[in-house]
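cache lookup: miss for this entity combination. No prior model stored, computing from scratch. Input as submitted by user K.M.:
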Amino acid sequence: MKTIRLSFHYLEFEDKADLLRVNLFRYFYIDLSKRLFKSIGSFKAGGHSIAFTTDLDKGSLEGQFNSVIAGSISGLRNSLNNRRAVYVHRNSGIPLIGSVSFSIIDRNTSLIEIKPVTGCNLNCIYCSVGEGANSELTDFVVEPEYIIECFKRLVEFKRQDNSKLMIEAHIGCQGEPLLYSALPELVAGIKGAGCTHLASDRVGGKGIGRRADNNSDSGININKRNKNENNITVSIDTNGTLLTEASVDKLVQAGMDRFNISINALEPGLAREIAGCCYNLDHVKEIAKYIAKKAELLIAPVLIPSINECEIIKIVEFAKSLSKYTKDKKPPVVGIQNFLEYRTGRNPVRQWGWNRFYRFIAELEEQTGVKLRMSESDFSITKTRPLPKPFRKGSTITARVVCPGRHKGETICAASDRVITVRRAGSAKQGQEIKVKITGDKHNVFYGENLEHARFARISRFS
Ligand code: SF4
């Protein structure tokens, strides 16, 4: 018998009497019965390590341990709300392009959307994706190295026409990206994409239980500030509540260029009401000041008619007051968004039409002397060659069921390196192949319907 210690970068262990809790990326967990490890040996676990007293050699131990974790990963939960969660990794069989909720979206421009995680610590009354403590969505969390690989391929594809094309990687989740503990590693990896000495090239191992031989080393160097030699800028949408000075420093060090912070009111009671839960406005204002000194800052309020119209001018004035902290002594950009109603979102009021919204913006520009109407060219976003679609709206394909979808009744299927969100998938089981009619294909985001289930539903209606 000997003692062998296994250490992991993204896993943390908690001993809970008969159970071993394995935390993945801090906010996700699986609870495992200790009996599952009986054939391996006894163990002591804590922090990022687990030490086994065993007869096995190291290779066999790693293999058996990884297979226990892989066999239980379908029980993954989000610890914030106890919702079911899906881990998307290189061995999961879940492609990274095709979903509007997780991974990568390419809308045929120089801006690539990156969505490593879902789930939110706030519960905003206007949330377009219905996120927050009371929602019944399924969460997704994606392995950073898997995203980095795919992002790198996409950058190469887009640069076939222009090798110097400036790319923006925009981290904008259905939720709060600061809930993704591997954010610095992700930022460092995408910032370095396109470079042959890429940190992301040095990432070892695959899948769930990637080992960290040095406990603090993820394989991606987040301490070397990536100069923008690759013409890649990185930006993020965040509600700002979970940012600290230390995390801002770490993200900037990793390569973050711009923070877009949503501030919807400067009156604390109203700000709390809009957030739908406890909300520390003072903290968010302080962190905005800190970011202004360290990186580019964009303040992004959502104009919610009859709820915060009067607050928007105060937010613009707040942004102006930050000019004394910015490097160029200019105020941060204020990007006001028009509240829009969504089928799957929370809609406390009716949305304004675009004419009314732009009239409001024009009046505000006159009152404050600040340019507030933004377009893609303000962010240097250009059109790029379109990513080929392996199938089109209207076609019928065979796809494999890979995991549950984000909303009740949805299933995620995979075919030709794309995921398809299948609504009303019926009783199709994971691993099963089904015939899917593609009902939506815009920007390689695919929706479909299970033909067998649709046929069955039609027959039952008439029988
Ligand atoms: S912070 Fe964003 S994702 Fe979270 S609840 Fe508010 S609007 Fe939704």
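stored under new cache key. The pocket of iron/sulfur cluster is lined by residues 120, 122-124, 127, 131-132, 175-176, 239 (CB under 6 Å).
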